[in-house]
Specification:
heterodimer, A: about 240 residues, alpha/beta, Rossmann fold, six-stranded mixed β-sheet, four-stranded antiparallel β-sheet, 10 strands, B: about 230 residues, mainly alpha, MetI-like fold, binds adenosine-5'-triphosphate, binds magnesium ion
């Protein structure tokens, strides 16, 4: 099957400073790709490009065989969504937050589906609660459900479980894994936790100062990285390109 | 001390008797300030939203200081300006609005508008940028993004309207200049208080003052209830 994304010489600059320059990357349909790299290496920038939230300053990006331009159809844009590190919930009830994406699409939120999600998240007792009052872990679970209920073709995760406790980290990993196996969605997962990357990913892409240094199957990347930079990164050393 | 207590007692008498002259003044105040607030909101809210939703305010280096200065415009200067515009020799003199309620509404709109634009704009700008990204990432169109963010900023938008209301209902300089404080025609609570105090009608002035504060409280109570979820 053709890849869901292809990146050719994709670049992003801010104020004349280039922060991303990817020569070539294909992201396969239905894969779970972990995106790792030191802070500032361009991981979040790449996710914003993959979610069509900003325009690249150069190069070509295709989504499902179609070139990504500012005029990309709404229906295509809506096949992709991101969960950010901060849950960014709206000042509405938990239920309204989970149903927000559906509301945007003119879909009437289905109460049974909502109840099922609240149950899975362990949040049934909080459905009517105002979302800003939730704890960090509860809020992130709501943010995840708000994305998963849309059954996106591509789920982008930008450190969704950073700063959370082991219980919430486990729950988030399990919910994503279940959604992935149910729908076959593509997942691109940015994480600082290499153990998490090891648990969830089929493939790993390692970014360093905006460049893709190594892309490999997870089993290979974590046991026998091909580049000295990746090896140093895995040892927890400060790395430069 | 005696005068104050006497005046207070008399004032309460006037209030509970629903003195028709008093009610006339209240009605005019509500019409002028209510009309001005409505107009300023209808213009200022979309304008503030349009500016606040952009990544950058166009020519922000100039526009922002202008708006901030406008937020603190001395009402009497606004009154003077409107007076000159609407006077017989002025460019808009032919409208014949001077010393009539429309002139007072125009002046109050000019006072309220920068407050509504400026506060709406800042409340939209202070929304967490991640929320903006998140809303778009969940599939919002431009219009849906704008509407969602305005709803997120609703407390700030309401504060803008409250600030504008407080600014114009208590304002005296501009309405005095362009309205002329004509009995039964352009007399509002603030100008009536000035007049009655000068005349030594302290009871009436005090009654008017109590009414003004009551109106302000009532309106703010309403706004507060609106913002309470
Ligand atoms: N909107 C922006 N304007 C200017 N510079 C930006 C912008 N977004 C990102 N950058 C810069 O681009 C570089 C890459 O940032 P990015 O957020 O993509 O890194 P990251 O890999 O996600 O880092 P972290 O792991 O700390 O989240 C950084 O140097 C950052 O300062
Ligand atoms: Mg990041």
């Amino acid at each position: 099957m053709p890849p869901i994304y292809t990146l050719h010489d994709l670049q992003q600059s801010y104020n004349g400073r280039r922060v991303l320059a990817i020569d070539r990357l294909d992201i396969g349909r239905g894969e779970v790709l972990a995106l790792v790299g030191p802070s500032g290496s361009g991981k979040s920038t790449l996710l914003r490009l993959l979610n069509f939230l900003e325009q690249p300053s150069g190069g070509a990006l295709t989504f499902d065989g179609e070139p990504v331009t500012p005029r990309l159809a709404l229906a295509q844009r809506r096949r992709v969504t991101t969960v950010f590190q901060r849950p960014a919930l709206l000042h509405r009830s938990v239920a309204a937050n989970i149903g927000y994406g559906q509301t945007l699409r003119g879909i009437k939120p289905d109460n049974d589906e909502l109840a099922a999600w609240l149950d899975r998240l362990g949040l049934s007792h909080l459905a009517r609660q105002s979302a800003p009052k939730l704890s960090a872990g509860e809020a992130q679970r709501v943010a995840l459900a708000r994305a998963l209920i849309l059954r996106p073709d591509v789920l982008l995760l930008d450190e969704p479980s950073a700063n959370l406790d082991p219980y919430n980290i486990g729950l988030i990993e399990r919910l994503v894994a279940e959604a992935h196996s149910e729908t076959g969605m593509t997942v691109v997962w940015v994480t600082h936790d290499i153990f998490q990357a090891r648990r969830v990913a089929g493939r790993v892409a390692f970014l360093l100062e905006g460049r893709l240094v190594e892309v490999a199957d997870a089993a290979k990347f974590f046991t026998a990285p091909a580049t000295p930079q990746a090896a140093a990164f895995l040892r927890g050393e400060l790395v430069y390109s | 001390m005696e005068t104050i207590l006497d005046a207070l007692q008399e004032a309460l008498g006037l209030l509970t008797g629903f003195d028709p002259a008093l009610m006339e003044v209240v009605g005019m105040t509500l019409r002028v300030t209510g009309g001005a607030l409505l107009l300023a909101t209808l213009i200022g809210l979309p304008l503030g939203a349009a500016l606040g939703l952009r990544d950058r305010v166009p020519a922000g280096g100039c526009v922002m200081p202008i708006i901030y200065t406008g937020m603190g415009l001395p009402p009497v200067v606004v009154g003077l300006f409107v007076y000159l515009m609407l006077s017989n020799q002025g460019p808009l003199g032919r409208l014949g609005w001077l010393f009539k309620p429309p002139a007072m509404i125009v002046a109050q709109v000019i006072i309220a508008l920068p407050l509504i634009v400026g506060l709406t704009l800042t409340s939209l700008r202070s929304i967490d940028p991640t929320v903006k990204l998140q809303v778009r990432s969940l599939g919002a169109t431009r219009a849906q993004t704008a509407w969602t963010l305005i709803r997120e900023a609703r407390l700030g938008v309401l504060a803008a309207i409250i600030a504008a209301f407080g600014g114009i209902i208590s304002e005296v300089g501009a309405v005095m200049l362009v309205g002329g404080n004509i009995e039964g025609q352009t007399r509002v609570l603030t100008t009536a208080i000035v007049l009655e105090t000068r005349r030594g009608n302290f009871a009436l002035a005090l009654a008017l003052g109590i009414l003004l504060m009551g109106l302000a409280f009532g309106a703010n109570y309403l706004f507060h209830r609106l913002s309470d979820e």
